[in-house]
Amino acid sequence: MRIAVLTALASVSLVACGQNATSTNNEVAENSANSVEATESAATPAPAPATKEEAMKVMHERHEGMEQIGKSTKTIKRALDSSSPDMAEIQKAAATIAELAAKSPNWFPQGTGPELGKTGAKPEIWQNYPDFVAKDREFGRAAQTFDAVARSGDLSQIKAGFADLGKTCKACHDKYRSDMHH
Amino acid sequence: MKLPIWDLPTRLFHWLLVGLIAFSWWSAEYHYDDLHIWSGMAVLSLLIFRLLWGFFGSSTARFANFVRGPRAVFGYLRGQWRGLGHNPLGALSVIALLGLVSGQTVLGLIASDEDGLMQGPLVNLVSVGTSDAATELHEELFNVLLALIGLHVAAILYYRLRGSA
């Protein structure tokens, strides 16, 4: 029993040491041509979809898109944590995120909040829309940048770009996503 | 002379655990991911201490001295128990609370949020599916833990009001 307990203790301390903080590195140039320029002037949300069905469709697309982004970031995280990261897998997931991120400005028209149906989108999105848009734009920028560095194949730049991307996800989710989003 | 029934390490364990469970809830609720993970690691360390103390600690802290079978529990309920420390029914509560908190820390080690941004340190030892299931359980078991803590506090109030004799 004593040995088992000591082993447990030892493994806990190992785990504690293995927790390394990720650092950001912004030296990656913003070299994306097709970022979300289309929404540059969108300080007000798009008008509500004409019918409830259309609004539900937007919410569905948003949900699926966010889920896909989440799955992709999980895949990348796992790949980066492994001893020999699968570069093709990372590149594919990075491209998926960039593609969906470019669509994300269209996912939040008026009237697609919790008043319509089950969603993790908080009403604050539409109350602070300029701030929300700024955060979404940051996300779009980080996603395009990350896609570009993923294609370059430079592992340290990929790690930095991924940390940067994660921060833009979190900045928005902490403020505008409710915990009832499953 | 008055002797304390529970020794200082056991009391420290108890109150540190109370603080850390509250802190764990707060850090998860307000998205302080790193703090939540460190809080969980601190809880795990406390539990390992308590496990050791349950074998090598002072008399009232040792599991062998208070964990009893169903007969002793029913005997206690009929008023046939004289002793110091945890009574046989209270022992069940201790085991349930320790077990649940242990389960929470282990689940937390392999849990992940839906984006993989906040992950337990051992998440890569299990599949994504297992991690997702552990995460869900980690969230749901917290409510069970709250219920047990409520019962624990209610029992203490009951004994206080009734008098401990």
From TrEMBL, chain A:
Lineage, top-rank taxon, reads: Bacteria
- UniProt signal peptide: 1-21
Pfam families with a match to the protein in the record: Cytochrom_C_2
Tagged with keyword Transmembrane helix? no
Which intervals of the chain are annotated as region Disordered? Answer: 23-51
For whether the record's keyword set contains Transmembrane helix, the answer is: no
Bias-annotated ranges (Polar residues): 23-36
Cross-referenced Gene3D superfamilies: Cytochrome c/b562
* InterPro entries assigned to the protein according to its UniProt record, in alphabetical order: Cyt_c/b562, Cyt_c_II, Cyt_c_prime_subgr
* Record key words, sorted: Signal
Q: What is this protein called?
A: Cytochrome c
Which organism's genome codes for this protein? Sphingomonas sediminicola
Origin organism lineage:
Bacteria, Pseudomonadati, Pseudomonadota, Alphaproteobacteria, Sphingomonadales
TrEMBL record, chain B:
Q: Which Gene3D superfamilies match?
A: Transmembrane di-heme cytochromes, Chain C
Q: Which InterPro entries match?
A: Cyt_b561_bac/Ni-Hgenase, Di-haem_cyt_TM, Hydrogenase_cytochrome
**Pfam families, sorted:** Ni_hydr_CYTB
Its record classes its membrane topology as: Multi-pass membrane protein
Q: Where in the cell is it found?
A: Cell membrane
Kindly list the residue ranges recorded as spanning the membrane: 12-29, 35-53, 89-111, 141-159
Q: Which residues form the Cytochrome b561 bacterial/Ni-hydrogenase domain?
A: 6-163
Q: Which organism is it from?
A: Sphingomonas sediminicola
* Alphabetical UniProt keywords: Cell membrane, Membrane, Transmembrane, Transmembrane helix
Q: What is this protein called?
A: Cytochrome b/b6 domain-containing protein
Q: Record keywords: Cell membrane included? A: yes
